[in-house]
Design brief:
The protein contains four helices and three strands; from the N terminus they run H-E-E-H-H-E-H. The protein is α+β, with helices and mostly antiparallel strands. The chain has one domain: GMP Synthetase, Chain A, domain 3.
Length: 114
């Protein structure tokens, strides 16, 4: 069970990282729409796992965008640190994971309609 502190930190990271990705998407991620769907923070607040949903544009694939996210991870962590430096003492290491739950829901809906 997550403690209240972990939940607050996860919500803070989710909100701020969503804003960062929204502002930087055209410059860094070829205009792809990236949404942070869920954040899990380790008990010692040193690692944050961010689940992202991606809508690629301009002929790019989800794998291309995930590779760009991994490549720009340090820059994104720095931008996160600038935003949350007054709330968190240690900025967690971030790792991105593709959230395919929307694809799964869409597939179930399609199967039910058949």
């Amino acid at each position: 069970m997550d403690s209240t502190r972990l939940q607050k930190v996860a919500r803070l990271i989710q909100k701020d990282m969503s804003e960062i990705l929204q502002q930087e998407s055209s410059a860094l991620f070829l205009g792809a729409m990236i949404t942070v769907t869920k954040v899990k923070v380790s008990a010692d607040l040193s690692i944050a796992r961010l689940n992202v949903s991606i809508f690629p544009l301009r002929g790019k694939t989800i794998d291309d965008i995930m590779a760009l996210l991994q490549e720009k991870k340090a820059l994104l962590r720095m931008k996160l640190a600038q935003r949350v430096k007054n709330q968190l003492r240690i900025i967690p290491e971030i790792s991105f994971f593709y959230d395919d739950s929307l694809d799964y829901i869409e597939n179930i809906d399609r199967l039910l309609k058949e």
